[in-house]
Each structure stands twice: as C-alpha cells, then as structure tokens.
C-alpha cells in the first residue's frame, strides 16, 4: 500500500497560492501526524483546508440534497448505510440481492464534500436524492450550501469512545502497533482541542445549536441512542428525510430488515467490506471494529477519563446537551 496515498489529508501539496496566504493568517498547531490550521473555528490539515475551501466556493447544492455530518469515528459508516437503505428500500423489493449496500462500502456510496480526491459524480444509481457526507462543522457547511434548504443529519458519539475508535483506526491504517503512548498523545490533543476537525465540543455544539434553531432541516442523532433503540431511531431518521415507513412496511418487518442489513455484523461480513479500499487506499475493514458503547472503560485510566469528562462538561454547560 502506498503510504503517501493514505496520508493525502496530511500532505500539503494541493494547497493553492491563495490558500497559502490564508494559512499565514490562521492560528496554527501541530499534532503527532502533521500541521494544523484553524479555519472558522475548526482544525484542519492543509490539504483538507484546501478541500473545504473548494467546497465552499464551488459546490452546487440542490434543494433535495441530504448531508450526513459527523465528527470522525462517531458512526459515519453506520449512518451512511442506514440512510442509503432507507432511500433505496422500495427499489430492491423484487431483487433484494441487487442492493447497493451488498456490493459497496457505504463510504463508496456517499461522497465526502471536502474530499481531497472528490468523486461527486458517483451517486446511487436509482436515486434522485443526492447524499453527501462531511466532517466540517455546521457553519462551514452552511456557507457552502448558499441558502439552499438541504437537510442535514448529524450523528454524535461519546467523546471517549470516539477517541478509542480513532486510536485503533489510526494504528491499523498506519500499520503500527496499538500502543498506550499513541493513545496518551491523542488524549492530550483531544483535551487541548487541537485535533483534526476539532475541538470536538465546538463541532458537536455547532450542530446541536443548528438543530435547535431549525429542527426541520437539522436532525441531531446519537450513536448510543441508535444502539439502544434502533427501531425507533430509524423511524425518526426516515421521517426526517421525508421517506417515513408505511403501516404495511412496519407490519411486514421492513424496519427490522434495514436494521439487520446495516448492523456491524452483516456489513463487516460482506466481501466488499472485507477486501475493498477507499479512494485514498484505506482498507474498508478498518471501519468496522467492535461498535460498542463504553469501550473506553477498557482503555482509559481514571485520570484520562476525568480529565475528558471535566473539559466536555465545562464546554457544554448551559447548552442542554450532554454526550
Ligand atoms: P469514519 O468517521 O472514519 O467514517 P465511523 O464509521 O464514524 O468512521 O466510525 C467507526 C466506528 O463505528 C467504529 O467504532 P469502534 O472502533 O468503537 O468499534 C466501528 O466499529 C463503528 N461502526 C461501523 N459500522 C457500524 C455499524 N454498522 N453499526 C454500529 N457501529 C458501526
């Protein structure tokens, strides 16, 4: 595997002269992987900043677009699968084996708006609704939507579980041993706020406030709630994106079929997810691990736990949100 390919986000070779000038005026920091700069309150590696700017300048929204937003490692793959399955459900009744999720990883079906290697031409073959994903914060996405009334679904996950998930993912794709010292340095960056797409609290709060202000266009979901009550949460998602389940569908078990199709176990068993790779060369199998709530308990020291909890609690105080 081409090591450089994997690190396309971390590289700085796609940055235009204009963006270079902008970067000079932005706050800068470093994490153990590369240089970061803070644009509109969010930390990016330089190539990703370029992709964000490209999106804000050139994206041509349509009223019916749906954007799936998340902080990395918060349930992006799952949300993509569930939304694809909802939009596609009526089209595969006669030929269920022809379902796009059976032969594609969810990431291949839902392009990232701020991709360094964009492929915004690939949409679900039978869908008129365009689905996109993003890790940008709410205000940055809104700027690129230029006033179009697109729907945005955000998925939030406990910050400690997100950290553990990101730790394992990073070690796998870098092909290095999963060590405590990497976790410690990642925990430090998380607490300082200077992580890729962070600070996590500002990121999550941007969508939380967006959802309170405009609930018909911004849906705020939680990974833990989908785990806890997948049936109810899937119905909520279906209603929000404008394709609610009919009574017949509920009676015939369609809701449960989608929950099952999109479960970690089913998806990770598929050949496409066992052997495929993203455009940047990351194995799809790395996107599926345990999918458990509270896995942080197996890895974080009491000190790490209370430090993260204290910071998040302070940052969220008065917002009405906890995660
Ligand atoms: P991304 O932001 O890089 O796309 P994302 O999908 O958000 O990653 O996060 C991966 C996490 O979601 C993994 O969590 P873990 O490390 O704690 O196990 C992964 O296992 C979990 N995940 C992936 N697919 C599913 C699914 N279908 N159901 C539940 N959890 C899932």
From TrEMBL:
Enzyme Commission code(s) on record? 2.8.2.-
Q: Where is the Sulfotransferase domain?
A: 63-320
What InterPro entries does this protein's entry cite?
P-loop_NTPase, Sulfotransferase_dom
What's the domain of life for this entry? Answer: Eukaryota
* Signal sequence annotation: none
* SUPFAM superfamilies from the UniProt entry: P-loop containing nucleoside triphosphate hydrolases
Broad class of enzyme this protein falls into:
transferase
Which keywords label this protein?
A: Transferase
One Pfam family per UniProt = Sulfotransfer_1
GO MF terms here are: transferase activity
Q: Report the sequence similarity comment from the record.
A: Belongs to the sulfotransferase 1 family.
According to UniProt, the name of this protein is Sulfotransferase
Q: Which organism is it from?
A: Eruca vesicaria subsp. sativa (Garden rocket)
Taxonomic classification: Eukaryota, Viridiplantae, Streptophyta, Embryophyta, Tracheophyta
């Amino acid at each position: 595997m081409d090591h450089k390919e994997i690190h396309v986000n971390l590289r700085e070779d796609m940055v235009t002269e204009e963006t270079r000038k902008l970067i000079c005026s932005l706050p800068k920091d470093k994490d153990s992987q590369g240089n970061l700069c803070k644009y509109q309150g969010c930390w990016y590696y330089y190539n990703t900043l370029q992709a964000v700017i490209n999106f804000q300048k050139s994206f041509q929204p349509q009223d019916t677009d749906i954007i799936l937003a998340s902080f990395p490692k918060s349930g992006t793959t799952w949300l993509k699968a569930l939304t694809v399955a909802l939009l596609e459900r009526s089209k595969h009744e006669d030929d269920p084996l022809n379902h796009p999720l059976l032969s594609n990883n969810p990431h291949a079906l839902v392009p990232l708006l701020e991709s360094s290697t964009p492929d915004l031409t690939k949409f679900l073959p039978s869908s008129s609704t365009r689905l996109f994903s993003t890790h940008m914060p709410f205000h940055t996405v809104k700027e690129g939507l230029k006033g179009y009334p697109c729907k945005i679904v955000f998925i939030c996950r406990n910050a400690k579980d997100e950290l553990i998930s990101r730790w394992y993912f990073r070690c796998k794709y870098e092909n290095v041993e999963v060590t405590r010292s990497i976790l410690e340095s990642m925990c430090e960056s998380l607490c300082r706020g200077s992580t890729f797409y962070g600070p996590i609290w500002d990121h999550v709060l941007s969508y939380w406030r967006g959802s309170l202000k405009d609930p018909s266009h911004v849906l705020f979901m939680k990974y833990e709630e989908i785990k806890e009550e997948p049936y109810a949460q899937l119905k909520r998602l279906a209603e929000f994106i404008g394709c609610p389940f009919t009574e017949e569908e509920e009676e015939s078990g369609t809701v449960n079929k989608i929950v099952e199709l999109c479960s970690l176990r089913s998806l990770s068993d598929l050949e496409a997810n066992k052997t495929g790779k993203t455009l940047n060369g990351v194995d799809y199998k790395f996107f599926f691990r345990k999918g458990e709530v509270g896995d942080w308990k197996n890895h974080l020291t009491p000190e790490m736990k209370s430090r993260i909890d204290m910071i998040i609690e302070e940052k969220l105080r008065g917002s009405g949100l906890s995660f």
